[in-house]
């Protein structure tokens, strides 16, 4: 079966986000009423697996092994079957 995962990786709240801070300052300089900007990386992964449960297990492993740094990043994902 073919699956697609949508994975969002962001810095944990305790870590500074200099890219987000810079974007927020620039938006305020442009007169937008922005309080805060946080940068989020999004990965869209299409892959084969035997079942939805196995697909979710594989995505969890992908996140832990490569897509997210567990020291500084938090992540969330959704997995759906695709044709």
Measured by DSSP, the beta-strand proportion falls in: 25-35%
Overall morphology: elongated
Instruction: State the CATH superfamily name.
Output: Phosphoribosylformylglycinamidine synthase subunit PurS
- Widest sheet: strand order? 2-1-3
Count of domains: 1
Radius of gyration: 16 Å
Measure the end-to-end span. Answer: 8 Å
How does the helix and strand content classify structurally?
alpha+beta
- Give, in order, the helices and strands: EHEHE
Helix content: 25-40%
Write the layout of secondary structure elements.
Layout: E1 2-11, H1 18-29, E2 40-48, H2 52-67, E3 73-82
Antiparallel strand pairs: 1-2, 1-3
Describe it for me?
- The chain is an alpha+beta fold.
- The chain has one domain: Phosphoribosylformylglycinamidine synthase subunit PurS (Mth169, Chain: A, 2-Layer Sandwich).
- It contains two helices and three strands.
- Strands 2-1-3 form a three-stranded antiparallel beta sheet, covered by helices on one side.
- It is elongated and about 50 Å long.
- The termini are close together.
- The model has no long low-confidence stretch (mean pLDDT 97).
């Amino acid at each position: 079966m073919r699956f697609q995962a949508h994975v969002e990786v962001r810095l944990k709240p305790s870590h500074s986000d200099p890219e987000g801070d810079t974007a927020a300052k620039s938006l305020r300089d442009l007169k937008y009423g922005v309080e805060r900007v946080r940068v989020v990386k999004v990965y869209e992964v299409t892959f084969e697996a035997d079942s939805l449960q196995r697909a979710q297990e594989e995505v969890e492993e992908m996140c832990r092994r490569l897509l997210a740094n567990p020291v500084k990043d938090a992540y969330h994902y959704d997995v759906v079957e695709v044709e």
